[in-house]
Amino acid sequence: MSTHLQKRYRRQRWFVAVSRVTILLALLFLVGLIVSIVGRGWSGFFRGEVQITVALPETVLENSGKVRASVYKKLIHKALLTDFEQHGITDAGSLENIIGFQGALKLRQLVRKDPDSIGRTITTWLPAGKFADGYLKGDLSTQTLVELQVEPDLIRYFEILDRSNKGRMVFNWSFFTLGDSSQPDTAGIGGALAGSFYMLLLTFVLSFPTAILAAVYLELFAPKNRWFDLVEININNLAAVPSIIFGLLGLAVFINLMGVPRSTPLVGGMVLALMTLPTIVISARAAIKAVPETLLAGAMSLGATRMQGVFHHVLPAAMPGVLTGTIIGMAQALGETAPLILIGMVAFIHHIPAGPMEAATALPVQIYLWADNPLRGFAERSAAAIMVLLAFLMIMNISAVLLRKKLEVKW
Q1: What is the gyration radius of the CA atoms in the chain, in angstroms?
Q2: CATH class of segment(s) 190-407
């Protein structure tokens, strides 16, 4: 007996040790993933700016409200060439690498806000171009620029900017306000955030009431027969169906059959609602089942109808668990990509949608598009967008846990 007990305790110790090692490995992989993403993406929340002195002649900008950004771009390049002459620089290659098109847009915005600057020479900070931005952030060292075959005079000018404090780092608010772009310095997640917001709003509006009513009926009103078993089995199976199947269903039914506009948050919300519906139904049924039957019986014994007892007593008592399952289902919908690709939300959308009927994309799809882009600057943009998506998912899941702990009733 003693030998047998020693073997049992030895197996228990091995099990505990293996479990701890498994948890440690999972945490190490998670930390490695987060460190890798943060290491690549933190710079996406910042942008480099270059200080420049630009002359704004009245002959060119006499009507600042209608002048194109290309005119301001020429003025910026003229100012850069003047600065080159002062430092003895003759060949810096493409001036877009120092101050790009976004700098021209910023200068035009400044002139429109202050028309009195026309006819004067102003000194301002403008968003840096591709190589200047990478150099100011520290992503591109001098050696890296040499390997990329950047002109030596351009590298020298970057070093002059660094020494003379004419380059700085600022928080990149435009990353959250701009839409997609073919150039990384003018690309943002504003359009993707708006598209995800409209889709999640429609998903909640369509799935939450339907799932609650279905759960209440199945748990408290439906007769327990073969049809009930068939419906229950199908709901459980739908919760395990791959998300791409719902994308195919949305393409076939909503777009091809019903004519819902393609690439809009409306069709995306309808598809995600179908995908989220089984998850909310299952969690709602579990929450309703956890409420003691005596609560409904007590309400009915005092004269309430069965429906009054359910909606006035049972459902409010089960609502913490229902909301927890709903938030988790919405978080799952926020991270879905495959069904949205099938319904056309992978299109290039440079503007921010003003409503659910306008063409849009979603944050996971925007990450997919940027990750597939060969331009160097999109690597940090995609990592930064992943950080934003993970932040939203963590907030939603933490909210679900806190909501459950705060509102949960122990019977």
Answers
A1: 29
A2: mainly alpha
Q: How far from the centroid of its chain's Cα atoms is residue 374's Cα?
A: 21
pTM exceeds 0.70 for this model: yes
Q: Can you give the pLDDT at residue 273?
A: 93
Whose CA is closest to 358, among 198, 193, 200, 178? Answer: 198
Write down the residue that tokens 């921010």 correspond to.
Answer: 352
Q: What is the DSSP string of 117-144?
A: GTTSEEEEEEE--HHHHHHHHTSS-HHH
Q: Is 171 helix (H, G, I), strand (E, B) or coil?
A: strand
Which residue ranges in the chain fall short of pLDDT 50? Answer: 64
Identify whether the C-beta of residue 156 lies closer than 8 Å to the C-beta of residue 314: no
Predicted confidence (pLDDT) per residue in 263-320, tens digit: 899 999 999 999 999 999 999 999 999 888 888 889 888 888 889 999 999 998 898 8
The whole-angstrom separation of Cα 228 and Cα 139 is 60
Q: Could you give the residue range(s) of every CATH 1.10.3720.10 domain in the chain? A: 190-407
Three-state SS for 46? strand
User: What pLDDT does 337 receive?
Assistant: 87
What is the phi/psi pair of residue 146, to 5°?
A: -65, -40
Crossing angle (nearest 10°) for helices 377-407 and 2-41 = 130
The token pair that represents 41 in the structure block: 């993406």
